[in-house]
Amino acid sequence: MTTAPSASRASADRLGRVLNLVPYLLARPGIAIVEAAADLGVSEKQLREDLELLWVCGLPGYGPGDLIDMAFDGDNVTITYDAGIGKPLRLTPDEALALVVALRMLAETPGMANRDAIERALAKIESAAGADADAPVAVRMTGNSKKVDRVRGAVERGRALRITYYTASRDQTTERVVDPIRVVNVGGWAYLEAWCRRAEATRLFRVDRIDDWTELDEPAAPPAEARPHDLSAGVFRPGAELPLITLRVGRSERWITEYYPCENVERGTSGEDWLVTMRVTDLDWARRLILGLGPEVTVVSPPELITGIREQAAAALAAYSVPVD
């Protein structure tokens, strides 16, 4: 059972473990899993899950000869094919430049943790890339555009805004008047944080989803109770008031446990599937998410979500049965 307060942090931690796992196992063929878990400071259960992830890691092409391969002898494991991870990395100029750009963008992201590690890695790659690292490149955060600059200007001028906003979780467009507080970048997206007069609460609006806006003559006047959100753990912070759903997830769809905050992840009775419990903004959003996933995801609860998915799937099938003139 695991708890995931931050999907991005959990993904980063697991990436570090898996990258360290391959050279460790290469140096210790036939090591007992319980011994490896103790050396690496993880539980035996976690190590087995990381080994399962390694089965689908490797080189582009992702065929049998491209993926990392292992052999198990009882509770002992040996890496039989490392997919080239043991070889020194040689970057092409384009690859080096792409890494430099990405690391520079990370270093400039507000609130980024481990900035020292990012700057050390950037210095090493810039040194190795030489003159290629100085190539003229325009770097823009996702969602950064003239729209962001104009919204930021409205914040600086202290003007209220009338915005037309698309809410992805409800697949709905609404119009509302907001009193801007600040513009922030979180997870590569630009957000307007403002007091929403319609909701009578502080809200975050992703700038790329603001379809239209008008700067009003009246000044922005957030009330005294308006407080900026704590964004250290990301934008979505699920609380007990949100709907709780449980999914049965097969191997090919386990990525959702890394991408979305989960309250609980445990191995199913078959050993191949996982039971994933997570909170969602609303059941309509969950329905759209699940309908877009593959056949290896099954809804366990709540019953109303199961019914909603069944009805929409039946309606979609019925639409295909109608002849087209």
From TrEMBL:
Q: Which residues form a coiled coil?
A: none
Q: Where is the WYL domain?
A: 148-214
Provide GO CC annotations from the record: proteasome complex
> Sorted alphabetically, which Pfam families does this protein's record hold?
HTH_PafC, WCX, WYL
InterPro entries per UniProt: CBASS_pafABC_assoc_protein, PafC-like, PafC_HTH, WCX_dom, WYL_dom
UniProtKB keywords: Proteasome
UniProt entry tagged with the keyword Cell inner membrane:
no
- Ranges of residues in domain PafC HTH: 13-126
Domain WCX, by residue range, is: 245-317
PANTHER family tied to this protein: PROTEIN PAFC, PTHR34580
Name listed for the protein in its UniProt record: Proteasome accessory factor C
Species of the source: Catenuloplanes atrovinosus
Q: What is the lineage of its organism?
A: Bacteria, Bacillati, Actinomycetota, Actinomycetes, Micromonosporales
